[in-house]
Design brief:
Elements (H helix, E strand, L loop, with lengths): L7 H7 L2 H5 L7 H19 L6 E9 L3 E5 L6 E4 L17 E10 L4 E5 H19 L3 E9 L2 E5 L3 E5 L18 E10 L4 E5 L1 H18 L5 E9 L3 E5 L4 E5 L20 E10 L4 E5 L11 H4 L5 E9 L3 E7 L2 E6 L21 E10 L4 E5 L8 H7 L5 E9 L3 E7 L2 E6 L21 E10 L4 E5 L11 H4 L5 E10 L2 E7 L2 E6 L20 E10 L4 E5 H40 L7
Parallel strand pairs: 13-15, 18-20, 23-25, 28-30
Antiparallel strand pairs: 1-2, 1-4, 2-3, 4-5, 6-7, 6-9, 7-8, 9-10, 11-12, 11-14, 12-13, 14-15, 16-17, 16-19, 17-18, 19-20, 21-22, 21-24, 22-23, 24-25, 26-27, 26-29, 27-28, 29-30
Length: 595
């Protein structure tokens, strides 16, 4: 630090008194008086600078720790180097630069002066704030952070921007404004409390009103205007036409299908639209975009007759198919059933993706409803056209089980063609609750072709048909009146099911269990019990055999009675013969007298 403070004596000593004596120059006492006056003025200039005063000075030295500023005082003042660093840490100071500083305090004893650039700037800011507020002016500021209820804005001091004053409409996401600079209006301030409240909305409203007047004067039906997408909803977008908003409804965006306006627009997009209607009184404007071009459906039937092969781009996928844009505004639907002759396409995403270029054939067209049905599989021959010739009904085929379901098994026949063996066609006699009880996936099996339905693309097979139907010979093997014996397989309220052989069961109805009236056999019999019954009814067509325990018991009783009668006659005959023989013996051999 350079010390400027010197006494009169030191200043005098600095002069080379010999210079006044050279060349016989006489010493002038008035000169000394002038020097005294200059010293007084110099000292007075120092005393005029007060602590807390903002002064303009210039930089005389820049070091690692301090910046030295000459403010016209006895010595230079120092300012910490960090007050000159910008946001990136770069020092914004050079020798000779002018700068406004605040004299914080000075020490006359050691001649040190402490200055502050930041505090001077803040004092100047408050002066500017006061002036701008009184003049209804504008102040520039930078949004620095989000705070409770709004945003913090740097205008030299930290100011508060309420959320309601950010924009013309409520802003949900305030974070995106951080780091951006805007002009603001000062709503109120309090220097003592260091409180400043700003508004951006007030300026936007004023600007909007000015633009609105000009826009209203120029708007008219069918006019093409430029606007900015201001808001996006499910039913359309609001377009700022310059102080007034117009609604571009979703139905007026494109001649084609629009799932959601966000598919076509983003907030801030500049677009040209046509004014469809303008209600000047209520300031309502309806806009259209598709009206800028001709409706492509007017000539669609001429361009795409049935059978035409077209190319297009997949623009959307649904559970039931894929929408393909064959030209702007004209879309066709490829239903999942029209994607492959043989593959069962469960979802179009298994075959196509959004953005794919595809070829298809026009199956039907309805310009009134703006619908075109397309097909992909029609580009190839239908394998079902020749399958009936290749595998006529009655043909025995062999293949692997590709899938097992609750209702049957699918057997691979040709590429993409599977035949179904229904659960009822697996066995003549076994009760199959689920096909997985009998078969496994990828198992090789044989089956007979039962039916081919080309229209519905169904191929029916049977496995039990490989063998004769055992029910056809049931009347021969179990004739009416024959006695059978077997285990009970099931007990119900209406009767007993009895196994005659594997897969063949007969029913003993509750009325055929006993001569005595039985309400239910449950509890009297159990599965596994062996019984003997008589065949009383046979229906091979209905696959039913009627049995009777009661008839067996009646037959046994009849047999026992017959046996009894036969044995009684035999016994009577034998007794008579014995009596006759005994009487004849007595006659031939009379007994001697006791006398």
């Amino acid at each position: 630090m350079v010390d400027k403070e010197k006494t009169k004596q030191e200043m005098t000593e600095d002069l080379d008194m010999d210079t006044f004596m050279e060349d016989d120059v006489d010493f002038d006492p008035d000169m000394m008086e002038d020097m005294d006056t200059m010293q007084d003025l110099y000292d007075q200039s120092f005393r005029n600078i007060q602590e807390g005063e903002v002064i303009r000075g210039h930089i005389v030295q820049v070091s690692d720790d301090f910046v030295m500023v000459d403010i016209g005082y006895k010595s230079e003042g120092q300012i910490p180097i960090y007050e000159f660093k910008d946001e990136t840490g770069v020092i914004q100071a050079a020798i000779g630069d002018e700068v406004d500083v605040l004299l914080e305090f000075h020490d006359d004893e050691d001649g040190s002066i402490h200055l502050s650039k930041e505090k001077a700037a803040k004092i100047k800011v408050w002066d500017d704030i006061s002036r701008i507020y009184n003049e209804d002016g504008i102040i520039e500021g930078k949004v620095v952070s989000k705070v409770k209820g709004g945003l913090a804005v740097d205008i030299g001091v930290q100011a508060f921007l309420p959320g309601s004053q950010v924009d013309l409409r409520p802003v949900r996401n305030l974070e995106y404004l951080i780091g951006q600079s805007f002009p603001f209006k000062v709503l109120k301030y309090n220097k003592k409390r260091r409180n400043v409240v700003l508004s951006r909305r007030a300026l936007l409203e004023k600007e909007r009103e000015e633009m609105k007047s000009q826009t209203l004067a120029n708007l008219e039906d069918s006019k093409v205007v430029e606007g900015i997408v201001k808001n996006i909803t499910d039913y359309g977008v609001f377009v700022d036409l310059g102080g007034i908003d117009g609604l571009l409804h979703i139905t007026d965006m494109s001649w084609g299908r629009v799932g959601h306006p966000s598919e076509m627009f983003q907030i801030g997009d500049k677009i040209n639209v046509m004014v469809l209607s303008f209600d000047r009184e209520h300031e309502r404007v309806s806009l259209g975009l598709k009206q800028l071009i001709a409706d492509p459906w007017t000539k669609a039937q001429e361009k795409y007759p049935i059978g035409t092969q077209v190319k297009g781009k997949v623009v959307s996928l649904t559970d039931y198919g894929a929408f393909v844009e064959i030209e702007e505004g004209v879309e066709g639907l490829i239903h999942v059933s029209e994607m492959s002759w043989t593959k069962k396409v469960r979802h179009p995403s298994k075959v196509l993706s959004v953005g794919d270029e595809v070829e298809a054939v026009v199956l039907s067209i309805n310009p009134e409803n703006k619908r075109i049905s397309l097909g992909m599989k029609q580009l190839e021959p239908n394998p079902w056209d020749v399958i009936a010739q290749k595998y006529p009904v009655g043909t025995t085929i062999a293949g692997k089980i590709k899938n097992i379901t609750d209702f049957g098994v699918f057997i691979g026949i040709d590429e993409g063609i599977d035949g179904l063996v229904h659960i009822s066609d697996i066995s003549w006699t076994k009760r199959v609750k689920h096909p997985s009880e009998v078969f496994k996936k990828n198992q090789e099996v044989q089956a007979i072709v039962l039916n081919i339905d080309k229209e519905n693309e169904r191929f029916s097979l049977g496995i039990k048909q490989l063998e004769p139907d055992p029910w056809e010979s049931i009347p021969d093997r179990y004739p009416l009146g024959s006695i059978i014996a077997g285990p009970i397989t099931n007990v119900t309220d209406f009767g007993l099911f009895v196994e005659l052989e594997e897969g063949i069961e007969g029913l003993v109805h509750v009325s055929e269990i006993s001569k005595e009236k039985i309400k239910s056999p449950v509890g009297q019999y159990k599965p596994g019990d062996r019984i003997t019954a008589k065949v009383i009814n046979i229906s091979p067509k209905d696959r039913k055999i009627g049995l009777s325990i009661k008839k067996v018991e009646e037959q046994e009783e009849r047999t026992n009675y017959d046996d009894y009668l036969h044995s009684s006659k035999a016994a009577t005959s034998n007794l008579g013969e014995l009596l006759k023989e005994e009487m004849e013996a007595k006659a031939n051999n009379p007994a001697p007298d006791k006398d």
